[in-house]
Amino acid sequence: MPAVKPAIMKNLNKNFARLKPVGIRQFDYQASAIPGIIKLTLGEPDFNVPEAMKEAAIKSIQDNDSHYAPGNGTVALRKAIAHFMRDRYNLTYDPANEIAVTVGATEGIYASLTAITNPGDEVLIATPTFPLYASVTTLLGSTPVEIDTSADGFVLTPTRLKQVLASHPNAKTLVLNYPSNPTGVTYTHDQVKALAEAVKATNLIVIADEIYSELVYDGRHTSIAEFIPDQTLVLNGASKSHAMTGYRIGFIAGPKELMGPVSAAHAMMITAASDPAMAAATAAFATDAGKAATQQMKAAYQERRDFLVAALRKLGFEITTPNGAFYVFAKLPAKFGTDDVKFATDLAQKGKVAVIPGSYFGAGGQGHLRISYAASLDNIKAAIERIKHFVEED
């Protein structure tokens, strides 16, 4: 096996040294090696891809749909996404120049931040949240500024935003993820409208990661782009709503003036997404079958959520009721203190249940656990019995 010349290591991107460790995958990997473990760790739907989506992908292959697609995605898929955004959220985007298909929402995050931030820029990130936003910001030479929302029920309020802007007046971007990974908390229509009014008074560009928008249980999802479309890039995709994580289809939608550089950054990274996956996503976003499949999954998730929240509260965990996504963010019972990493490690090793420490998700996460209910109800019930035994025996 080759060994790198030592002097070469000094020539790497120095921003790698600024990165904070992201322990989610490593924790999951280590827990997976424990015999008999029940995993409630990753945001990986346990459903299979719906038949209509599979059939569309198979037909694409059989039709020899195997050549380079346009960089921003097939016309059919961009039209399907435009339909999806208009039908679900009353948002209007031109498929020609206001939508780009990405390799998952993850690539969308990278392309968006690459296009709109410069080295030294400050990027405001409402936390606790998915740690990739801060990692990408750091790698690009910008500075992540975490906004701890835990005191406000994990919702970024206009008052809190204004306070942060007073000490960070040169911030260029606000990253907002809702429904939230890891809290499952989302925003009401009025909360989104009020926050949008506060943003409107600034020159911030909002990256609104709304990948869980189809999984809202009471009421409907309101995109911040409904109120400030001229300042917003919306990220979404098929991974969570249609159990298509492995197909890697996401998208970015926004005003064409912003989408020009975003699309250029995207094209430099991946050229285009794969044809069969885009065919499957077209069926997901444009057909009644795709819409129905999401509704069926959502009903199952809601049943799991209701059971899990009630059971955990009985065991002494404090929970802000999650109204979206498929996560519960549970505060440890007082007797366990705030060392969530120790608790989660002990629970995995002794209790045979794997969850993710809340501190991995940034400011406001310490003393919490992220528990995914993208698992069968039987597994969730079995996990609760083990957690009950662990908590009562400790």
From TrEMBL:
Top EC class of this enzyme: transferase
Domain of life of the organism encoding this protein: Bacteria
Aminotransferase class I/classII large domain segment(s): 37-387
Keywords recorded for this protein, A-Z: Aminotransferase, Pyridoxal phosphate, Transferase
Required cofactor(s): pyridoxal 5'-phosphate
GO MF terms, alphabetically ordered: transaminase activity
Coiled coil location: none
Signal peptide positions (record): none
SUPFAM superfamilies: PLP-dependent transferases
Enzyme Commission (EC) number: 2.6.1.-
Family, per entry: Belongs to the class-I pyridoxal-phosphate-dependent aminotransferase family.
Name of the protein this chain belongs to: Aminotransferase
Organism (species): Limosilactobacillus pontis
